[in-house]
């Protein structure tokens, strides 16, 4: 029987403009526009559903065509979608401008609706039941700090593990007060710097700083450079596999989180779990979408053969 995952977080519209040639700051750049449903929590939910998990998604949404687009994508991915719909509001959106090589130039996040996901919504009977029935809770820092704290508290009361996706340097700080209640955190270097307020030359110093904040397990991605991951008593490093045909890096971190969590739920140790995460991310960056529609347990296993073994640092 498939394990259950409850996702509480961002499910909105991603708009991405890609510049065709060299980026010319402060000028008009020829390019193309693309729009799809996205959001950290939603991307991870779709990935996990494609990897065979029973996924339930709870997120705020507007009563508009964008909200319907998100609902349709959730259904297509096999997610049990249970949104809070605010008929008079618009669904949040994230608008990014990408360079020709897929790297981010600048982005604008219109996320005001997420402020309405307040802690008292966790007291709704259907939400309480979802906490009781799940094997893992995954949230993201699109939600308010007090709601993230309430999620961690309810999960602890129910005896359920919590994973969190950092989203951005500005948003990850919302998780700081509740880090002791988070079992797994996925973040990049900029987010690690924002959370710990340090920028060390040796990324292992982030591990010490995050542990000091109460975090038990974390994965810090560093682009094409080796990621650093840690548990209570282990620190590992992993060089991501080289991907020649990168289509779009959007969603890579969300897919890495999905791959790691799928391996953790299957009973793998940290060193093996980060290999699954790197494999999932490599599949995703070859897709023009924020999630790879061809992601499957079989494809993940195939890609895993191209991922090196993790190095145990301590």
TrEMBL record:
<feature type="domain" description="Carbohydrate kinase PfkB">
    <location>
        <begin position="4"/>
        <end position="291"/>
    </location>
</feature>
<dbReference type="InterPro" id="IPR002173">
    <property type="entry name" value="Carboh/pur_kinase_PfkB_CS"/>
</dbReference>
<keyword id="KW-0808">Transferase</keyword>
<protein>
    <submittedName>
        <fullName>Sugar or nucleoside kinase, ribokinase family</fullName>
    </submittedName>
</protein>
<keyword id="KW-0418">Kinase</keyword>
<dbReference type="InterPro" id="IPR011611">
    <property type="entry name" value="PfkB_dom"/>
</dbReference>
<dbReference type="GO" id="GO:0016301">
    <property type="term" value="F:kinase activity"/>
</dbReference>
<dbReference type="InterPro" id="IPR029056">
    <property type="entry name" value="Ribokinase-like"/>
</dbReference>
<dbReference type="Pfam" id="PF00294">
    <property type="entry name" value="PfkB"/>
</dbReference>
